[in-house]
Amino acid sequence: MNILYILAILSLLVFTVSSILKERKYTKITRLISCGAAVVLSLVTAIAAPYLRAVSIGTAAVTVLSFGLSVLAARLGRDGVRRFVAYMAKAMLVVVLLEAVCFNFNCFHLWKGGYEKTAPDLNQAVVTGMTQTGSGYRSTGASATVEFPNLDQKVGTIRLDISGSLNKTEYTVDFADETNASYYLRTGLVSGTAFNEIEQTKTIVCDFSGKVSKLRINFTGPENNIVTLNGISLNEDYLSHFSILRFGLILLGIAFVWLFKRSVRFRAPLGDQLTVTKRVTAVVVIAAVAVSLLLSSVGLHPKTDFNGTSGNQITQELVDAFEAGQVSLKEQPGADLLNMENPYDWSARTEQGVNPKWDHVLYNGKYYSYYGVGPVILLYLPYHLITGHYLASLPGVVIFNTLALIFLGMTFYLLMKKLFKDIPLSMYTAALLMIYASCGVWYCTVMANFYEIAQSSGFCFTILGAYFLLSSNVIGDDGDALRPSSAALSSLFLAIAVTCRPTTAIWCVVAVAFIVAGVLKLRRTKSEKKAFIRYLLAALLPFVVIGGAQMLYNHARFGSFTDFGIAYSLTINDFTHTEFHTQLSAIGFFDYLLAPPSFSGQFPYVQTTLSKLGVNGYYFEATNNGAGLLYRALPTFFLFGAPFALKFIEKEKRVRTAVLFSAVAFVAPFIIIASIWESGYGTRYMMDFAWQMLACAFLVMFLYYRQLKSGESKRIYEHLMLIALFACLFVNMGLVYAYWYPGPYTTGAETAFVSFGRMFSMFNT
User: Quick one: average pLDDT of 471-499?
Assistant: First the structure.
């Protein structure tokens, strides 16, 4: 019955080509006949070949839907809507061809013939590490083996009727075919994991040569997994799969291409359609929040996360300390730790068997936390006071991430509204999507500890500060009056960011530069003295109050207004003796900004290896997921053109533009990267500077775009932007996937991650 499927695909191909090509004499009749043939042949195939049923039914359904949309398009009155519907009808045919051929390629593996379907008797096999239970076998130890020493037949697929007590079973296959008569050099070449809930993973597609004389299947893990094997069948057809989600996502990407290139609204400037721009921004924001919540759902445990009886140093220990009216933690260090000559030396603690509270601060015989009190005071302490329970880390991170993602979209919208109203909505949307993809928030979603709380809360309040800084009208037209209330909110949130993550203090310094720009704006507009006083009080008072409170808190703990206590932390390094080396900072600059990713033929296709640049010293590696921002979002390269773009700025504005832009795009990010060398490399640290640098890169990019006079030049520019968008989504999706899976954080959702990965494996191997 394979010929029926081939004829169905050929009919679908004719229907697709005739739908795309211009109307000719016999086009309509060709389309009608080929469409009908594709549908009928697909449905007959679904009945005659059960292993092709899923993809055949999907193909028939999409073909009918495409034909219906093309008929509907011809009847629509509005030209733009009619063209879009007709375009999508054709696009559906292209995507369903991909689904029917490429994404189900393994279904054709046995078509060359010579493969006899057999079910070898397990009672005739050599079985070790398993005991017989009825008609099947069950493993009794960490590993088990089933061997057929005298098989003598061609093997194209091996289907395992198997289940594991831990939802998955890892295996390897040893074989001897006509190119090698024994297992020698053919051991473990085939390996994989069979998941209980994913049927395709239980079929092994084999690329052996000639007859297989010996076949051995080894079940190797994971540890404590009890394997139940009910049977093995050879040369069973590979089951097809039609993924509605995959079909929809690819179709969504194609729809965006049309909107980007053809839509009248998307090609119109922002200033002509601010309401539409707000709606598009809202859609992108909602999508980003939805993805964030979906990832976070992997690690959320509603039954325990909201009624905890214990927690970490942010969610419980600082909460308990503040409720007890003290700045030190309630738990006291042991005498063994206090009696050590150097308690900050990890190796000395290990050698002496001293096991203190990890990554806590030890100072003057007491435990402290050097992590910020912002999230404690704003969230975790009130939650405990109200409910009597400790809120877990991840729910708090979800709240901070959600707020951050919402205001990140609002901030970029406001920035573009002020500076680039003439930019097409299409370019704006692509830029916003790239900022979301590259901002780094995705590395604080699936799992959260106190590290992620500090990172996400600092990220959140920095973005809130940026939004209200722009809202204060400190940049933009001189005709827009300064808003002291917005300036006050900006300073308030930026100051709070420092209480969450001290690294963000550099953005407070940058904000002061913008406040000075606001003062200069008041001078240019010849405002009254009261306006200066009102603005400066509003802009600076939150820094004084919040900053003063933080300094008093520092002094109460460590006797210094500026000491946050990291030097006294009990962690991997003795920070009281750690020395700065330029080469150690260089590692961060290379891996955060310059390191190119590598690519492979297997999902997630993107691979990275953290480079330590040959440094002859210790450098902590928190996450091996290094890929520079330049390659995560290609428009970042426009930062190199920033000095040359100044000529496009009005002369009287060049100096302040250069100062403010440099502070955001270069000075602050570079200081942050240089300063976090002590903590080592962690991908999540990109949240401190990535979105700011990328937003500045888009400012330069749009400035150059504005200077183009030729429509053709602008079209080329826009096409490059579109390519950069899909490259950005591709690279960042791969990096985020590789960051979380495989790993201990996704154990409960491993099946979902594997299913997602297989969905984008082109040949579904």
Answer: 94
